[in-house]
Design brief:
This protein has 18 helices and no strands. It is mainly alpha-helical and 425 residues long. It has 2 domains: 188 residues, Growth Hormone, Chain: A (Up-down Bundle), CATH 1.20.1250.20; 201 residues, MFS general substrate transporter like domains (Growth Hormone, Chain: A), CATH 1.20.1250.20.
């Protein structure tokens, strides 16, 4: 199923690429899907496994689950810039393959973990190897013409959404047999994917375009120097941060919000998540690239952010479940903004710096993934506390609308269509 995210050669965004490059892009899509699966597969089974290791101590298990989830994001935050720069120095292929094989080992460690210390080590290593996302996205920038990158990134974002579907589903089904079974299954898939990539993944970065490793920049803060060194790049990075934070405004409280406001059952949640993921895959694969071609990347970002503002506002105010369903449609359509924004950022750096840029973007993603859930769940707890006005439970989602509006204003006022790379050096 996860291989289906790569478009057919005759109709997909990479029809002009030779067969080996198309096969490589299929591998990249699967790798990104696996990165998401490695993180999300634990959601249905991690609390049970932790509780089992603690001998049934539920309060202690709750504290440990939060720590283990955060450990993944923290590890990826520090790993992404290093992996991105390593790919600029040694090429994308070895870095990606080592990360994929490393992911399979990490999952085995978690499957065998005899105690919480080993489980924590496995989660940290899993976050480190999931930093291959930076090298994978740089690979796409290497082999895709600038005018096609929004479409390419749309397909890869669809691969991530496939991981969103597969991870919890795989964890839930296999976890009903054994809390450790999902880790074994994901490890087997990662190993198979690594073997497949070993034979089909060509190198995308020629030796003459590789850059020396500057270790003082191989950290999240060193990545900021690249963002600050190119005209407009820091602006786009701020917009990307606001965009991803806004997404967490809904995702972080979704289950709590729908239970509190609409009394949704687990079945209703599952149906909604499946439909939403399917819609997002269609938007990313069929609409994102077409919108960028027709409107231009900057206008596509503006249109997507405007749709997101509308959707978040409607979701935060929706009095009933029917309107809640409808209100999520503009949020899904707003996802056309991400691929175009990513493409605009890649056009601002040299070909030899794509790995470093993707590492910086990976650091932003990890930070929003770490602090976003904390921020919005606390806002939700405040909104539903005793004595607060009724109907205020949508406050964190309305905060997401505000963040999206701020991003829209930054692009509208300060953003410009990206000139050719030669003009930005």
């Amino acid at each position: 199923m996860i291989f289906a995210v790569d478009p057919p050669p005759s109709v997909g965004p990479h029809a002009r690429l030779d067969p080996r490059r198309r096969a490589g892009l299929g591998f990249i899509a699967v790798t990104i899907c696996l990165d998401v699966v490695s993180h999300s597969i634990v959601y249905p089974v991690l609390p049970k496994l932790v509780e089992e290791l603690l001998g049934g101590d539920l309060p202690a298990a709750a504290r440990w689950v939060g720590l283990l989830v955060a450990a993944w994001s923290v590890a990826q935050f520090f790993a992404a810039p290093v992996i991105g720069m390593l790919s600029d120095r040694f090429g994308r292929r070895p870095v990606i393959l080592i990360s994929v094989f490393g992911l399979s080992i990490d999952l085995v460690i978690m499957a065998l973990a005899p105690n919480l210390a080993w489980l924590l080590i496995g989660r940290l290593l899993c976050g480190l190897t999931a930093g291959s996302y930076a090298a994978a996205m740089a690979y796409v920038a290497d082999i895709t013409p600038p005018e096609d990158r929004a479409k390419s990134y749309g397909w890869l974002n669809a691969a991530a959404w496939t991981g969103v579907i597969l991870g919890p589903a795989l964890g839930g089904v296999l976890g009903s047999l054994d809390p450790r079974a999902p880790f074994w299954a994901a490890a087997a898939v990662a190993l198979a994917n690594g073997i497949y990539g070993f034979f089909v993944l060509p190198e995308s970065l020629p030796a003459d375009r590789r850059t020396p490793m500057v270790w003082r920049n191989a950290n999240p803060w060193g990545s900021l120097s690249l963002l600050a060194s190119r005209q407009g790049l820091m602006l786009f990075a701020i917009v990307l941060t606001l965009l991803w934070l806004a997404i967490h405004a809904l995702h972080s409280v979704f289950v709590l919000y729908t239970d509190h406001r609409y009394a949704w059952s687990t079945m209703q949640l599952g149906v909604f998540f499946s439909v939403l993921a399917a819609v997002n895959i269609v938007v990313q694969t069929q609409l994102a690239g077409r919108a960028a071609k027709r409107l231009g990347e900057r206008r596509t970002v503006l249109a997507g952010l405007a749709a997101q503002v509308l959707g978040f506002t409607a979701v935060g105010l929706a009095p009933g479940a029917g309107l809640f369903w409808i209100a999520n449609l503009p949020i899904a359509l707003g996802n056309v903004a991400g691929p175009s924004l990513q493409s605009m950022m890649t056009a601002r750096v040299e070909e030899t710096e794509q790995g470093r840029l993707q590492g910086a973007m990976g650091g932003i993603s990890s930070l929003t993934g770490l602090f976003g859930p904390i921020l919005f769940t606390q806002a939700f707890a405040w909104a539903i506390a005793p004595g607060m006005p009724a109907g205020l439970s949508g406050a964190p989602i309305l905060l997401g609308a505000g963040l999206s509006a701020a991003a829209w204003l930054l692009i509208a006022i300060y953003g410009r269509d990206v000139p050719a790379r030669d003009d930005t050096a």
